[in-house]
Design brief:
With 110 residues, the protein is mainly alpha-helical. The protein is 54% helix and 11% strand. It is built from three helices and three strands, in the order αβαββα. Strands 1-3-2 form a three-stranded antiparallel β-sheet, covered by helices on one side. α1 runs parallel beside α3. The protein is elongated.
Length: 110
């Protein structure tokens, strides 16, 4: 019974990882599939703390600023797929893309 539960959970995580990867790519992010764990680390092209705060304030989507993991993450965020459902994954990824496009338009990037 324990293995069945674990196998079901692993299957759900694999599905969530695939969905998140696909939606992030559709939103224009460059994605590397995580080898382990339940998180993607994404470059967002803006200071990570600013981006994370704005994302939460505007879209009610929480991510972890990449700067918390070291200087190399100053323009990245960590987003997880382990404790959310498929609709929340889609909503969160679309919000990430929308905010990045908004900030890019404001700064005339790309």
């Amino acid at each position: 019974p324990g293995n069945q539960v674990a196998n079901r959970y692993l299957a759900i995580l694999a599905k969530h990882r695939l969905i998140m990867s696909q939606v992030l790519q559709q939103e224009g992010f460059s994605v590397s599939m995580p080898d382990g764990g339940m998180n993607f680390f994404l470059s967002v092209g803006a200071p990570s703390e600013f981006f994370a705060e704005r994302l939460f304030e505007q879209y009610n989507v929480a991510v972890v600023p990449g700067i918390y993991f070291g200087e190399a993450g100053k323009t990245s965020v960590r987003i997880g797929f382990g404790s959310v459902n498929e609709d929340e994954i889609r909503k969160g990824c679309c919000a990430l893309g929308a905010l990045r496009r908004e900030l890019c338009a404001m700064t005339k990037c790309g």
